[in-house]
Specification:
38% of the residues lie in helices and 17% in strands. The strands form 4 sheets. An 8-stranded parallel β-barrel has the order 4-5-6-10-11-12-13-14, surrounded by 4 helices. Helix 8 runs parallel beside helix 9, helix 10 runs parallel beside helix 11 and helix 14 runs antiparallel to helix 15.
Length: 403
């Protein structure tokens, strides 16, 4: 197989495991946080800076790259690796999530999803075959099956953050929406689409296709989806449809149930989950890989992650704060909170760049310490260093919030 996992050590008190994933473009240590470069670029951070910050594997988005510049253009330039000047492992998602997040501008049926392009307004059709062919052309080491990602909870019962999901809710109300029926439809369709993805996959020797488990917050449906998806022999498997409307407790419940059901000797990937407490919970459930846009999205909005929680650098209280972003960081960026606040208030582009870089490094530091906790069998020491995630392992925080 193009990608393999070596499990080096298992945790004594949980399902956590320490390992190494080998790909055609090198290895990365697990548990791993994949930094997201949606359009083949980390916003405000170069590939070299990401590597220096500890990143070992990056993620890019199939849907956006299909729209611009096009997968064929990227293929003519040798694929994503030389195109974005990154010689390490890359994972591409399939575009299935956009069927959920852009619910007001798409139509889904058995053949696939038809989108309204966010660039030109024209109709774009994405099917399991097209998504797989596009990822073959992009050349990522790990490619994802095209799945049907439904809302995890009934969209009529949740105050959705995205207006697009609200639009979907209104449409589904009009059509007599049945959430249980929608989840069942997504389970079976995801399984059928997975078979089509595997059949369409043309580069099995150099690219590993991962299947995606769905099921919302219903544990019986999650079990059924695991059985359906894992019935197809693949190099790895992912838990999808999480953090798409449900709360922290439901995320933990779903992951704790689902992760141990996935094949033990294959990489387990939790898609789109990025807060520290959720990562630690999932690691202890047996998950190996994570991704999220939070580091750069929050960074360019002046929200910095620290071991004690987020700080919002536009707040007036930081105007004369000479401390670094995170005093617990053994090697912090050499800029004070006061200076960073000045950059944001002055609309200097350096502010988003520096805080994004800090956030990228923050999550890589988190993963280093998680791996250390597994290796040394010392979660209490981890809780001391990371109060923001201490509750996820059932230990009290030894520190108060940063002020």
């Amino acid at each position: 197989m193009a990608v393999s996992l070596e499990i080096i050590q298992k945790d004594r008190t949980s399902h956590a495991r320490l390992g190494t994933v080998t790909t055609p473009h090198g290895t990365f240590q697990t548990p791993a946080f994949m930094t997201v470069g949606t359009k083949a670029a980390l916003k405000g951070v170069t590939a070299e800076q990401a590597r220096d910050a500890g990143a070992e594997v990056l993620l890019a988005n199939t849907y956006h790259l299909l729209l611009r510049p096009g997968s064929e253009l990227i293929e003519r330039r040798g694929g994503l690796h030389p195109f974005m000047c990154w010689d390490g492992p890359i994972l591409t998602d399939s575009g299935g999530y956009q069927a959920y997040s852009m619910a007001d501008i798409n139509a889904i049926d058995e053949d696939g999803v038809t989108f309204k392009s966010i660039i030109t307004g024209e109709s774009i059709h994405l099917s399991p075959e097209i998504a797989t062919k596009t990822q073959n052309e992009l050349g990522a080491d790990i490619i994802m099956a095209f799945d049907d990602c439904p809302p995890s909870v009934d969209p009529r019962t949740v105050n959705q953050a995205r207006l697009r999901i609200t639009a979907q809710s209104k449409r589904e109300n009009k059509e007599g929406y049945d959430h249980g029926r929608r989840l069942d439809e997504a389970l079976d369709r995801t399984a059928r689409w997975l078979e089509r993805c595997k059949q369409a996959h043309q580069r099995e020797e150099t690219q590993a296709l991962f299947g995606i488990v769905q099921g919302g917050t219903d544990l019986e449906r999650r079990t059924k989806s695991v059985e359906q998806v894992c019935n197809v022999e693949l190099p790895g498997y992912a838990i999808g449809g999480v953090a798409v409307g449900e709360g922290t407790d439901d995320i933990a419940r779903v992951v704790r149930h689902t992760a141990p059901l996935l094949p033990e000797q294959k990489p387990r990937y939790l898609m789109g989950v990025g807060y520290e407490r959720d990562i630690v919970t999932a690691v202890r459930a047996g998950v190996d890989m994570f991704d999220c846009v939070l580091p750069t999205r929050n960074g360019r909005n002046a929200n910095a992650f620290t071991a004690n929680g987020q700080i919002r650098l536009r707040n007036a209280k930081y105007a004369e704060d000479d401390r670094p972003i995170d005093p617990s960081d053994p090697d912090p960026l050499p800029y004070s909170r006061a200076y960073l606040r000045h950059l944001f208030m002055s609309k200097e582009m350096l502010g988003p760049i520096l805080v994004s870089l800090h956030n990228v490094r923050h999550f890589q530091r988190l993963m280093v310490d998680i791996r250390r906790a597994i290796r040394d069998d010392d979660w209490p020491a981890f809780a001391e260093r990371w109060p923001v995630a201490a509750e996820a392992i059932g230990l009290p925080s030894a520190s108060g919030p940063i002020v």
